[in-house]
Each structure stands twice: as C-alpha cells, then as structure tokens.
Amino acid sequence: MSEERVIRSDTPYHPRYVVWELTLKCDLACRHCGSRAGKPRERELTLDECLEIVDQLADMGTRQIVFIGGEAYLFKPWLQVVEAAAKRGILATMTTGGRQVTQKMAQAAADHGMSAVSVSIDGLRETHDTLRNLRGSWDAAIAALGHIRAAGMNPQANTQWNKLNLPEVEALGDVLLSAGVKSWQVQITGPMGRAADEPDWLLQPEDMLSLVPRLAAVAEKAKAYRCHVEASNNLGYFGPFEHILRQAHWQGCTAGKYVLGIEANGDVKGCPSLPSGPYVGANLREFTLREIWEDTAELRFARERGTEELWGFCKTCYYADICKGGCSWTSHTLLGKRGNMPYCHHRASELAARGIRERLVKVEAAPGDPFDFGRFEIREEPTR
Predict the structure, then answer these.
(1) Which residues in the chain show pLDDT less than 50?
(2) Is 67 in contact with 94 (CB distance < 8 Å)?
(3) How much is the pLDDT for 4?
(4) Alpha-carbon distance values, 89 to 53, 95, 108 (Å)
(5) Strands (E), the chain
(6) What is the pLDDT of residue 10?
(7) If you count Cβ atoms within 10 Å of the first and of the last residue's Cβ in the chain, which end, N or C, has fewer?
C-alpha cells in the first residue's frame, strides 16, 4: 500500500504524494498507454536539475515519490535520484512494466534506498501480452515481482481494468496473491493516449455493477494474505463496497491538494494522470516548485472548486458536495471537461433502479500526442 494515502481533511495542502516521470523513453509500446510512451521528451531534465527538485520537494513536505516513465530505469542516473530522495527522508518507490527488472537491478534499487516497486500487470498471460504489445512481457512482469521481494523491497502490483481483462478479476487476483504482492492498486483504463484509439476496449458505465463487487470480494480474500487492494481515484464511488476498496470514503479529487505530477521535461501538474495541455501549471526550469504550487490556477483548481462546475448526473447526485464530480482526469478525457463522471458504482446502481443504463460513444478521435484525448458522449438507454 502506498504510504498514508488517506489524509485528514484539515491537513494543510502540500505535495505529499508525488508521481515523477523521469523519462518518457520506454521499452514497451503498450496499446493502452495514456502517455503514448516510447521516445524521450525533448529536453528532459538533467541529473543536477533532478537533484535540485528533490530538495524542493523535501522542503515542501513530500512524503513519497513514485518514479515512473516511460520506464524510470531508462533514465541513466535514476538510481542517483532515488538515493537523493531516500537521503532526504522521502519514501522512494517505482511503478514499472518490469521488462528489465532483473535480480541485479532490483538489488541495486534497494541498495540505493528504494523501498517498494509496483509492477503493472493487466491480466493473465495472453491478455497482458496483448495489451502490452509484446509476447513475454507477462512472464517478465511476474518474474520482476520475485526479484523485488528477494531484494527486500515491498512487492506491489497495479492493474487497469478494461473489456479485455474484465473476465479475469478473480483469476488475476489469485495469481498476484500467490506471487506475494502486499498491495494491489486497481483502476479503470482511461480514454487517453493509445487507449483513446481503442474505444471498444474501454469499459461502459454499467460494467461498474460487475467490476466493483468482484474486486471487493477479492479484497476481502486478500486480507488473509496480508495484501491490501486499493481503489485508485477513478474507480468507485460510495455504495456498499466503498469501505472495502478505499481506506476512507471518497472525498473528491486530490490533484494539486496533496498530489503532484512532474513530467520529464520539468512540466508540473496537479496529478500525473491529467492531460498535459489543460493542466500543466508551469515548468520547473522557469519557476520554483513552491511558486508553481501556490500560484498557478492549473494546480489550484481542486482546492478552490465547489459544485458550480458539476453537470449531468453529478450535479443532481446526493453525494455532490463531497464527491465534486469524481476523478477529474477521467471525466475530462471522456467528455472534454470536468464535473460529470459516468464510471461510478453509485450512479450506475441508481440508474439501474430506474431501468436506465448509460453508454459512452466516441465522437471525436485523439490527435496522437502524449497524454492526449478525444471526446465521448453519454447516451442513455432503457435496460428493460
């Protein structure tokens, strides 16, 4: 489980949990990758710049950094950045596809202060290899979990749910529990990047009625293995399974409140998943982290929002004052703006009771850039 993801509502806003893309270079070309990772960005940060940013994060109270890519280990001095973070008392972790995570690499990461590594595993072997666009990627990912554990780090996993792997919830849970994972983060494949090019792979809102209770059942089983199953920010919300999949009930988007995303060229946004265009506040080569955090509207939006921007079902929802439209990333990349989140278990349940289901229909293609998105429309249909 990631460190202290539940934060009291009276805690002063600060970048407590940071996801840092060290490079966009990747050794996979996953067909559902939201950042379209592969080639490095232009003018990615140097080691000296990264070390300065570590100090700025520590000074602002950052407790955990999740290093990502592309693949973080393809940034040549990545271990020096990990070590710098650990020496400043920041929990250093990594999310990876695991293709090159050998025993030697895992041990080097542990020796430099990394405490946990989460391996992205998106189904059983055939499904995972299809999504990752490489035969053998599943075997490498499973092997990586063993190397991480042998190096003394906390082995974790994360999974994106979509139409391809939806039938495999229970079976994948059994595989990961047998592999000894201590935390399993689950989320929905968002309609961004390459995933936006595969609309038939995306879940429909009514799929929440199947996915959420099944994940909750796996989470209950996982307790006997001392493994915590944690719903990410775009999976939920409320209803009878919320207390099982989330440490506390959903309290709204935390982008720019307690969460921060850093892109490999120094661009900063309030959440690593948010599309770059509408949400980059500024660049760390031009401003300090504190200036960007305190002064840019792109990072402040979740701190200052009420219910004014809510629309559609979310505007009328019983939980509107608390939820404020669910995950900003998913709603914006689906519908072109925040404030209406159709991937919601409570919402699907309420509509089903009225004999209604929602369908998402693609009406505009994504342009083909990193963190890009197209546009979908919500259409209602009778269920009987």
Answers:
(1) 1-8
(2) yes
(3) 42
(4) 14, 19, 19
(5) 17-21, 64-68, 91-96, 114-120, 154-161, 183-188, 228-231, 259-262, 267-269, 280-283, 356-364, 375-382
(6) 55
(7) C
* β-strand partners of 160: 187
For residue 323, the Cα-to-chain-centroid distance in whole angstroms is 18
Give me the sign of the Cα torsion angle 179, 184, 190, 193. negative
Read off the tokens for 287: 């401003």
- My answer on whether omega of the bond before 318 falls inside 30° of 0, hence cis, is no
CB atoms within 10 A of CB 205: 21
Give me the pLDDT at residue 281, please.
97
Strand ranges (DSSP E) for 232-295? 259-262, 267-269, 280-283
Sheet holding 183-188, edge to edge: 228-231, 183-188, 154-161, 114-120, 91-96, 64-68, 17-21, 259-262, 267-269, 280-283
Residue 248 confidence (pLDDT):
82
pLDDT of residue 249: 85
H or E element, residue 81 = helix 78-87
- Give the distance, in angstroms, between the CA of residue 225 and the centroid of all CA atoms in the same chain: 24
What are the residues whose beta carbons fall under 8 Å from the beta carbon of 170, sequence distance 6 or more? 214, 217, 218
Rounded Cα–Cα distance for residues 280 and 269 (Å): 5
- Of the candidates 156, 219, 162, 212, the one whose C-alpha atom is nearest the C-alpha of residue 192 is 162
How far from 178 is each of 83, 142, 173, 174, 371, CA to CA, in Å?
31, 11, 8, 6, 34
Tell me, what DSSP letter sits at residue 38?
B
Residues 40, 38: Cα–Cα separation, whole Å? 7
What 3-state DSSP class applies to 280?
Answer: strand
Find the Cα–Cα–Cα–Cα dihedral 84, 87, 89, 95, rounded to 10°: 40
